[in-house]
Each structure stands twice: as C-alpha cells, then as structure tokens.
C-alpha cells in the first residue's frame, strides 16, 4: 500500500491521530492539514489551511493566518474563499512533491474540489508521490455539509474521481471508528516505518 487514508464521522479523532503519530515519530511531512477556528465560546467560526511542516514546530509559536481561511463565519454570515486552495494549497502540494517527503492530505473530498486547479494538483500528487497519509471526507460528512451550506456544493463526480485515483495508486481508504482506533494507529505506525 502506497497511500493510507482514513474516513469516518466528524470529531471521531481521525486528524488528531494522524497528527499525533507524525509528531511522536518525528516524521517530516509536506502537504497540509485543516485547523478549525473557534470563538471564545468554542463555536467553530472557520477553517484554515495550514502547512503540514508546521506540525514539527512548537504549537505555541504558530499563528492563525486570516487569508488562509477557506471557510469563515463573520457576523452570522458564512463565506468561502477558494483562492486559498488555488494559491497557497497548490503551492504546498508542489513543494511537497519536490521535497520527497511523506505527504499529509488532511482532509480532502470536500469544498476544495470546487477548485479545478487544486483538484488537478491533488491528482498529480496522488499519482507521483510514493507515500501519502490523510483523511478523505466520508460520504455522510459530505452530505451533511451539502445540507448545511448556503452555497452550492455538488462535487460527487470529483469525489469519486479522486477516490478512484487513490485506489489506482495502490491506496486504501479505511473506515475509522472509536472501536478500531488503536489497531489503526498500530497499522499507521507500521505504514510510516516502511
């Protein structure tokens, strides 16, 4: 297996586990991860695209970058900024491919697929890179996102095409639950050691 993707329900711990293992094993990674922005009450106010290389940096030194937020809620209004993927996201993928590092794609299969440019970069990355780990947005989470967004989000074709690319490149998309979390963590560690 060349590519290791997890999929599962929201807040089940997929990204947390990937990031924890990468940090504990001190593995340098390229690519990206998504960080939830929260207000003082803990409500999610946005989603920021971050460089995966930051995972090896002390979290105390990391700052939020407003222009890297691709979904933001301000004054009760939610907005999208696909330019984040088309500029910063594409740059992260190109740099990661050139670095020869393991690539983290956390998470794909959502709103970013509305950007044709970024979707092409994802396909190229999946085809060319020897080892990727990541999270693929589950169908349940995608359908939930479609229902709760004002803007159009019809990316079923792009999602299926991306899944097929992962499978064609000898990748797996593995269901993640609370029950199989420990066994998947062990499997992930073995995958990263090879």
UniProtKB/TrEMBL annotation:
InterPro entries: Nuc-triphosphatase_THEP1, P-loop_NTPase
UniProt xrefs under SUPFAM superfamilies: P-loop containing nucleoside triphosphate hydrolases (SSF52540)
Keywords: ATP-binding, Hydrolase, Nucleotide-binding
Keyword ATP-binding set for record: yes
Classification via Pfam families: NTPase_1
Domain of life where this protein originates: Bacteria
Protein name: Nucleotide kinase
